[in-house]
Design a protein that fits this description.
Blueprint: E1 7-13, H1 19-22, E2 34-37, E3 40-47, E4 50-58, E5 62-69, H2 72-82, H3 98-107, H4 119-127, H5 133-147, E6 149-150, E7 158-159, H6 163-167, H7 181-192, H8 194-197, H9 205-212, H10 220-230, H11 244-253, H12 263-269, H13 276-285
Antiparallel strand pairs: 1-5, 2-3, 3-4, 4-5, 6-7
Length: 305
């Protein structure tokens, strides 16, 4: 259990919107590993120095950062990158697309943050392979609640299951959370390589993608989804996502036809290189979403997989 014996604070200057920068670290509601408030965000994190909790509280010009636990000092040292200190949005020109330019005026500017950690982003992403968002969030919440441990700090958060915990399980144990053998064995394999996989956080995007995809069961979608949070590359785009290509095409053209691959999405994003991820994040920050034209898909029972 994490004792949370260490508590440290810092203040960092803020020159853009904070919430869009931190959103990739706490995407979904009712997640026991993080907590949002109107002007604050807290996240329980496995760091290279041990378990910790980091909390960001922002005003118009600065961010107060607090951290607890064995990983407190590591988290405070990493906090500037969480807030996008490595990223420069000044070169982003949205004017080739009038709608995008309007959205940037309303919801920008913002930097893209990098957590500098891989494991818990990767674990959550594997849970989301080939299932709906609702199914992934439910399975994640149940797994964290049962296999995680209390995080340090005053928020009542729970740390994601550690690599050691996941590596010690059989794939059958995951069925309790509605997770079939394929995802379970991928999580177990990732857990057994977790310390090596953490190196991806300090690599460039291409090297990091190759590094993660050495693990069986980790493909382009899982790797790119993980790295959008881990390394904060403003140009990386999640590949082979079920809904992202349709959202991007609809945002740019008004065509809500279901996109079956990434081809058209990448064509539309190409003029904005090296800020393609910034464009995607802007669309999410603005709440852009194509109209739904079919009932939500449901996955088969785990016993059939």
């Amino acid at each position: 259990m994490s004792t949370g014996f260490r508590h440290e604070t810092r203040t960092i200057a803020l020159d853009g919107r904070c919430r869009p920068t931190l959103t990739p670290f706490g995407v979904f509601p009712r997640n026991p590993t993080h907590r949002w408030a109107p002007r604050s965000f807290a996240n329980a994190v496995w760091t290279p120095a041990g378990p910790g909790t980091v909390a960001f509280t922002w005003t118009s010009g600065s961010v107060d950062v607090e951290a607890w636990g064995e990983g407190a000092t590591w988290l405070l040292d990493a906090a500037p990158r969480w807030l996008g200190s490595h990223d420069d949005p000044s070169g982003f020109d949205p004017t080739p697309n009038a709608r995008l330019a309007d959205l940037w005026r309303q919801h920008g500017p913002f930097r893209l943050g990098a957590s500098g950690v891989v494991w818990q982003h990767l674990l959550f992403t594997i849970v989301g392979q080939r299932v709906t968002t609702q199914e992934a969030v439910r399975a994640w919440r149940e797994m964290v609640t049962e296999w995680g441990e209390p995080a340090p700090g005053p928020f009542g958060l729970t740390l994601a299951p550690s690599p050691e915990t996941v590596a010690s399980r059989s794939y059958v144990d995951f069925h309790h959370f509605g997770i079939e053998r394929s995802r379970a064995t991928t999580m177990i394999a990732a857990a057994r390589s977790a310390h090596r996989l953490e190196r991806a956080a300090s690599m460039d995007s291409d090297a990091a993608l190759r590094h993660l995809m050495h693990v069986p069961g980790i493909g382009p979608w899982t790797a790119t989804s993980t790295l959008t949070a881990s390394i904060g590359d403003p140009d990386i785009v999640v590949e082979r996502d079920y809904g992202l290509p349709t959202m991007v095409v609809w945002a740019f053209t008004g065509d809500a036809t279901r996109q079956l691959d990434d081809t058209r999405m990448f064509e539309l994003l190409e003029p904005f290189r090296p800020h393609r991820q910034r464009v995607v994040r802007l669309l999410f920050a603005a709440g852009v979403s194509p109209p739904r034209r079919a009932p939500r898909a449901r996955n088969p029972r785990i016993a059939w997989l």
